[in-house]
Amino acid sequence: MQGNNSLRLWAGVSAVAIVAVAAAIMAPAAIAEEVKTSKSVEWEDILNDEKTTGDVVHWGMGIRNHRYSELTQVNDSNVKNMKAVWSFSFGDEKQRGQETQALVHDGVIYVTASYSRAFALDAKTGKKLWSYQARLPDDIRPCCDVVNRGGALYKNLFFMGTLDAGMVALDKNTGKVVWKEKFGDHTAGYTMTGAPSIVKDQKTGKVLLIHGSSGDEFGVVGQLFARDPMTGEEIWMRPFVEGHMGRLNGEASSHTGDPKAPSWPNKKDGSKREAWNHGGGAPWQTATFDVKTNTIVVGTGNPAPWNTWYRSGLDGNWKDYDSLYTSGQAYLEPSTGEMVGFFQHTPNDAWDFSGNNPITLFDMKQPDGSVVRAGAHADRNGYFFVTKLDELTKRDGKISKQAGGAFGIYPFVPDISWATGWDLKTGRPMEVAGQRPPPPAEGEKKGESIKVTPNFLGGTNWMPMAYSQETGLFYIPANHWTEDYWTENVTYKKGAAYLGQGFRIKRQFDTHVGALTAIDPATGKIVWTHKEAMPLWAGALVTKGNLVFTGTSDGYVKAFNAKTGEELWKFQTGSGVVSQPVTWEMDGKQYIGISSGYGGAVPLWGGDMADMTKQVSQGGSFWVFGLPKELASAN
Amino acid sequence: MQGNNSLRLWAGVSAVAIVAVAAAIMAPAAIAEEVKTSKSVEWEDILNDEKTTGDVVHWGMGIRNHRYSELTQVNDSNVKNMKAVWSFSFGDEKQRGQETQALVHDGVIYVTASYSRAFALDAKTGKKLWSYQARLPDDIRPCCDVVNRGGALYKNLFFMGTLDAGMVALDKNTGKVVWKEKFGDHTAGYTMTGAPSIVKDQKTGKVLLIHGSSGDEFGVVGQLFARDPMTGEEIWMRPFVEGHMGRLNGEASSHTGDPKAPSWPNKKDGSKREAWNHGGGAPWQTATFDVKTNTIVVGTGNPAPWNTWYRSGLDGNWKDYDSLYTSGQAYLEPSTGEMVGFFQHTPNDAWDFSGNNPITLFDMKQPDGSVVRAGAHADRNGYFFVTKLDELTKRDGKISKQAGGAFGIYPFVPDISWATGWDLKTGRPMEVAGQRPPPPAEGEKKGESIKVTPNFLGGTNWMPMAYSQETGLFYIPANHWTEDYWTENVTYKKGAAYLGQGFRIKRQFDTHVGALTAIDPATGKIVWTHKEAMPLWAGALVTKGNLVFTGTSDGYVKAFNAKTGEELWKFQTGSGVVSQPVTWEMDGKQYIGISSGYGGAVPLWGGDMADMTKQVSQGGSFWVFGLPKELASAN
Prior knowledge:
Radius of gyration of chain A: 24 Å
Oligomer: homodimer
Largest interface: A-B, 98 and 98 residues
Largest sheet of chain A: 6 strands, antiparallel
Distance between the termini of chain A: 50 Å
Shape of chain A: globular
Number of helices of chain A: 5
Strand content of chain A: 25-35%
Helix content of chain A: under 10%
């Protein structure tokens, strides 16, 4: 509605303006935009991003996604004095969800925005150096708002996904398109919202641009891609539905797992049931990278359709059909795109729990003092997975490493209803009977409604948690909510929603929805929880200054004591904050950068939550905060 | 284009969302918006607005439009430490020009926004209390962007004009519409962008809501209205084209001036030439009020069409046809709407100089030490008019008070080309020959192009200046620019632009366009000028703390030393600032409030300037600034 109205108004405005323009002789702009040439970004810069405090050159603030900074200038004593330094408006009468993470390099901030836009800003002043806006066709199908979650930098290029299932490389000094590759049919539902990542294949020495696809709600087959970052040329593609064929150097490479796909049921004639052709598993968030074992690690999306019975045996048997390789964490060889390991978070996922939130790779100190290599993932299904990195990266010819693959699997939200816990030996959940929404009774279109906790928006959703190398804790932007859930009949139709499920998101508690949760990965102990009235939909950042930063749906950027969860500072940005904070140092001063702009899945899908957040204004701006010189010392 | 794209994307987004919504059972919002009941606004509050520092209950920060505050907590010593306190996003994927002035009362900020929107915000936190958005038809015709310049408060109501030629009263505690009156045919070009004002007729004791109309570029007849604020009922209407009929209590009242309209030429048959029927003069800015003489004072717009020859004798004689009562300042009796005085700024205006910028009423200390009652107006034509308030308000049966009506008329921009100065005795300009764009030669469609300084965007345009009761100076947001100007043939067609003129706005100097100018009204001396690279399009505010505040097209809110013009502070808001700053005190702290969001006439009409400002992002937000407690003392 809004869009239409503004179009027509603009037409009205033009009525007179056209007279002026038509009468005018066009002259060159009197003040050209300044071209600022910044340093090339090398692999070493990316590899060291975790340690270098003067820049943020990779999503996750490093290829392991720690979102941790050694900076201490802004700390638990003085953060209360932090102030806004500047703000930048994304403009163009485009707002909606701003879920991005900015990159910062050589005095320039690179930030993406809704509707597949990108901006380069002078980090000191906020002055726009260039902007880019993808020309999006009318028939794109983003399931969950027109968001973009960030870009990547390498050499002189800035990379980002576009909603029309494209990946684009821009000259980072000018914003001009260097290459653009379309990776899927956007009319079938393929799209791209996640940030790409950069890895260096330790075997070949080749640097690769890794990116996934989105679209599970439309029944796509999720795919991960490796490209030559300089040319955009595809090196390999890996589909995440068991038995589908991968691609290497433009040719068929290998099936994903067993070519017969035994985790997907057959029809009576022995051919696969429909769902297998459209099985989802899209890796729509950002891959992390284990340099030691030369392994790409990525979360895979929900199976399609959501309705479990379409992915079960004709007799209703779901236990033998895990819908591999959906809703789990996948480990891949960068040279070939072969899958070398997989750990599933939700076997035969009946709830759209998906498994995409990035797997954070870290060295975990165990209660006995030993240090082990681990992967951490907080899932929509309410469990926090601490997996064995050395097991899952092992090239032993066996993909599934469910049995014995995890150090621990712990609930991080209360009253999980679909499982009572996990058997670490088998690596399988102890599922609660009756929590799979039952199929419609004969002659009915809808099944009986049941209550499931957490709901499909998740214990946590896409918003990345942070890991403190100082406290050893993870900080999960979690939510406490539940839902009513029922099945519906569905048949695949290209470009249409392929869910087979209906739902209403509901409150779990009167007091709050959002729950920033600090958890000890070695024990699963929840150290503290900070509650928010509205849903939390922003990522977290943690610093050695004992601070956790995140944003809230009611417009605040906030800082918390990392050890205690005490709220120490907040600033009202005027629209909901659902993006990812970063921090860096420039000219001896520490800054925090974050986008503001409400949107994403909650207002579109969120039932009671959509109603609650209707009062939140849309926005679209980037903010930089810092300590005034005079207030940098404590108190 | 933008609007269309976003509409379609939204449709795409909805594809899935609709499934969710359709499947959902609607439930009431879990958290309702808070209703905050604030004190009633009385006439005394408005009358005293100039002096009360705890609120801003009228446009102009008082009915005399001084835009001056006695507050000194933020001052020339400590303003460098001022920081952003909070920001609010207007949202809705609507941006474009934000030219508004906020009102502040009893802890609530009332601010209008582009596309005829209004918001009530908690002044402490920025939390939205309510919002209102006019349902605008598709065929509105705002000449110069979808701006709104502010509202008015009285009793429990908040008033604002709408782009579809309406005036609406909202319950100020809930935002619900109490009444809405349409005052003109928006398809003919009538619209409303200015803030209404509140006056109390000293004769009858009746409080009136005064508002004008816009639309001169479409050939409307400009009208001023008085309404009962509580019901919206029209009390009187005064047209500003000589000889047109006014209205009082629903009946024809009196002609405006001479019924024969001798200042408009006749055809050979003795009837009026076409222009008289569509003569413009719209009072599209806000009226001020002289309590002592019980007189409403308002600027009137340009004559229509712009082309002088359509408003001159058939022999090309313009000297005898002043196009009354356009491009001047009008004085009206509040009981009846009768015009009691008029001073024209540009007789037979051939340049769209208009005369709308509000007339600031003040007590002027003359060089000899005597104090006189005066009106001050900075005009697009480059002259600063200091008029005699007691003369112009005199009920002597004579409307035109041109002869001897001014204390002084001074240039405030350099190289004015259309006149060399003014004869104060006659009250007429010494016009330069050849500066009226000549008519097309026989058989041609366009006349020869000539260069005119300043251009029609003006030495200053709509953006209100400020008057310091402390320094005695006026602070004019001025611009230094020129234009190429030529005539074109035109015939009135309802709803179409009625200009008869073409143009291209051009640079005057390589160094700058904007020029914040401090001028002494008693001598016309320019005390200082602060230059800005880009056009200045924001209003000014001055405080006893020796500070002048304004905004810049490149996104800054700035503070200057009121005595010297030294720039003391700036903050980057991310979009061009073209609105009107206000200041108030709350809980012992002084705050500055201003909207950010680029748009208005410059990017639509501005030729070279539109090119220059293309780099400015659109926006739409309100900002509050203040001194951190720790930094409130100097240094």
